[in-house]
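Bit of a strange request maybe. I'm writing a small parser for structure token strings and I need a real example to test against, not something I typed by hand. Could someone generate the tokens for this chain?
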Amino acid sequence: MASAPFPLVEIRSVANAQDEWAALLLRVAEDSANSPTGPAALSALFASPDLLNAVAPLDCIVRIDHPAILTPSVLELLPPNRVLLAVAASALAQEGIARRLAELQLSGYRVLLDGALPQGVAQPAALRTVALDCAADVPRRGALPALFGPHLAYGVATRVRQRECEAAGFAWFSGDYMLESPHAEGDDGTSRKRLLTMLALLARDADSRELEAQLKQDPGLSYHLIKLVNSAAFSSGTPITSFGQAISRIGRRQLQRWMQLLLYAHHQPDGPPNLLLPLAALRGALLEAACKRDGGDRDEQDQAFMAGVFSLLDRLFHMPMADVVRDLNLPEHVEAALLQRAGPLGKRLQLAEAAQLEPALLDGARVEGASWWQDQLHAYHWAIQVARNV
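Reply from user aminoacidic:
Good idea to test on real output. This should exercise your parser:
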């Protein structure tokens, strides 16, 4: 791994119909996957236990263009109980590929046919689970085999399209629809104003009593905070019942971080998860890890984390980012990163939110591919734990 450039890897989260992360979708950049060193590029991702340990308990769905990349040495690194293979359906035009994929399935791998079948090629009886780019079109309702799956719809841009995909028989979804935040029913803007006030208090390192007074006006936020500090992540056996106890248990610095993230939690105790929450946690942890790698001090790491978490506030509040940050009195470089993606922090944020990883983005952010990969693993591990505990 050290002797060759680390392959560019696109990672996307996959959610189920209950808006819970269910898997991660991985694709090695085409120039790496299709080259003679393609198997080496895939091996570089799974050669150490870091990847599968970091994303546990989620599975990995690996998109590949042709099963030739799945050499015996590569398959040794891909445990069938944790790795799904999404193989381009176009490969079935070649003789023997259907049999090869069926053999992989018999050996324990879950195989998804990715994309449309080649013209004149019938659906293999043993291969009935599909992955499909649903950006442009969706199969008719009930078109997918109900006894197979889970079927994966990716490229899902909107919540409307996600519902159409679900009606068609898909159970797993990936795409920008996760960036949509539903409007709270019956909210006249009061909740949003309270949250903006809380943000301002957090940004200026307000006194604990001020935070507690604001929390008392928002029972939903208070509920999630108490639930969090009583979770397995922090539990010491003694139940926490007050905000003051929460500060004592986890410390003020960690409390502020959790409060920033809890802004994305649904305020109804029994409400569905908000997919913005793990995404905000992911960005925050990713920018913090990159800052720490650069030797940034504790305050700089906190500011990098805040920039990542706050980068989705415009989505959360359905308002321009400039209006969100106007009264927060953020550090100048954090505000520049959020509003213009300017400065070193802005370039890192741009990299964190990129739909497709490109060398130019890494160069602009002054980040090496191998380092960014390790930071991503750290960030995904943390975001997965946040989603499970909030």
